[in-house]
Every structure is written in structure tokens, then in C-alpha cells.
Amino acid sequence: MKFKNKQSLKRIATILNCNYIGADDFPVFGMNEIHVVSSGDIVFVDHPKYYTKALESEATVILINKELACPKGKALLISDDPFRDFNKLTNHFNPFIASTAGISESAIIGANTVIQPNVFIGNNVTIGKNCLIYSSVTVYDDCVIGNNVTIHSGTVLGADAFYYKNRPEGFDKLVSGGRVVLEDNVDLGALCTLDRGVTGDTLVKEGTKIDNQVQIGHDTVVGKKCLIASQTGIAGCVIIEDEVTIWGQVGITSGITIGKKAVVLGQTGVTKSIEGGKIYFGSPATEAREKMKEIAGIRRILKEEK
Q: pTM to 2 decimals?
């Protein structure tokens, strides 16, 4: 998430009421999670296991819960609770604004786009040309929809990320300040749910077609010309490369990559990154040919034991 205007390190520290290491006027341009940070961003870290990764990331401002030597060219914000303060910054720079109409006045809707009755379109949404959005679709604030997109009834774009910190008093939610972006010629079936990014974008690229009842988690990127069948559940921060086919009831864990032109057969559980250009089946996912050999071998053994 980039700020509308450049901020200074001192200004950010004042908002958080925390100490800092670095020049008062050290520039701050935005805030992001570790996997999408770039120069000028704030990233937060609250566990020693990840200090080095945060300090060596592209982020130039590290919101951290311990005073450490500051790497050259970077700055530190010293916080007793970086998770809480990251939320404070999200709420400060991207506050929730309640809608006052079914289709927000700030929404931009392109020529020849058809919006059926009972659709909700939030603040600052952009929708391209020649789209068809069926009844009971919900498009949360800041979502971006390209041209020639079809979205069927009951689909929700932009719900909060499923991201919580377990505290003694209960689960504390990381506030979602990102977006959902659909590129041109995307089709979404009925009752799909695409969560917004925490600070970046959940992205579906051009030409991808998604069946009914598919869940896509925060900050996931789905490549061009993918096919995703019904009841597939995709966790957050997944990279699905171009021309991947995912059949029904597949489950995909967070933070992995599915390679270009991979085919994932129905009811497969994908628990680690898989190469492109191959067919996978089973849980955990295995190349389909090998999995079929395993199944045949087990059946042969069982038959011999009878």
C-alpha cells in the first residue's frame, strides 16, 4: 500500500508514539508485507526468527520490537507491539469509510457495463467496459475490475484477509488495506470469494476463468488463462503461474507456487510448490502417473493378502 503523499520517519513515529533510528526526514512512501515490499516501504517484524529477513528485505523502514544496529540506508521504528502499530498505520492512511448507497458515487463504471439489481459496489471501485455483474454480487472498497469481465451472483470481492495473531485474550486481526484486482476477460462463477490483500493486491490476470464456489486468499496471484473448477480453496500468498488448470475440490496451502501449465486433478492437496508442465494428483500432491502406480501397487498387495 502506497501513501497518497510522501511521509517522513518522524511523522510516522509521531503517529505511533514510538522511538526511531534514522534521520527525521527519512522518506517513507508506503507499507507492505515482507513478500511485496519495495524501497520506501515499512515492514513489520515481531519475532527474532524473522529479524534478519526483515532487515535484509527491500523495505527501507523496519517496524521492530527490539533496538538493533540499523543497516546502512535504512531506518528503524522501535515499537513494543509492531503488529498493533502496523494496524494503526493501516487505519490511519486507509480508514474504513461507510457507504451511503448501494453503488457508491465515487465508483467509476465503464461504458456498456451492465449492473444487475441488488449489486453492492463500494467506495473508489473501478469497473471497466462491457462487464456484466449479476444480482447479489458484492464489490468492496477500492477493488479494480477490468474490461469484459463477468461476475455471477453471490460472489464477494474484497473481504478481509484471514490473518490473525494469537494473543492470550484472543485472536487479533491484521487489518486489511489492500485490494482485489481483476484484469480483462476474467469470468467468475457464482458464490466465489476473493479476499483483499493485506497491503498489496489479490490479483487475477487476463483471461482466467473461475467456476462457482471458489475461495482465493489474500495476496494470491492467479496467472493468465488459468482454469479453476468448483470448490477449490486457495490460501493466501500463493502464486499460480499462467495457463494452470485446477480441477474441483483442490486445496492449496499458503505461500507456495504452482508452475506454468501445471494440471492439478480433483481433490488434490497441494502442500508445497510444484513444477509446471506436469499433472498432479493426491494428498500431498504427487505426479499423477506415480500416484496411480502407488495406488495400483497397494491394491495388488491387498489382493495378494486375501
A: 0.94
Q: Which of 35, 92, 152, 218 is catalytic?
A: 218
Q: What is the pLDDT of residues 101-144, one digit of tens each?
A: 999 999 999 999 999 999 999 999 999 999 999 999 999 999 99
| 152 flagged as catalytic | no
Copy the grid coordinates of residue 201.
Answer: 493486491
Q: Are residues 7 and 28 in contact, defined by beta-carbon separation less than 8 angstroms?
A: yes
Q: Which residues contact 54 (CB under 8 A, 6 or more apart)?
A: 34, 43, 44, 45, 62, 64
Please name each of the domains of the chain with its CATH number.
2-93 (3.40.1390.10), 108-290 (2.160.10.10)
Beta bridge partners of 19: 78
Q: How far apart are CA 129 and CA 148, in angstroms?
A: 6
Sequence-ordered list of residues with C-beta below 8 angstroms from that of 55, at least 6 positions apart, any chain = 62, 68, 71, 74
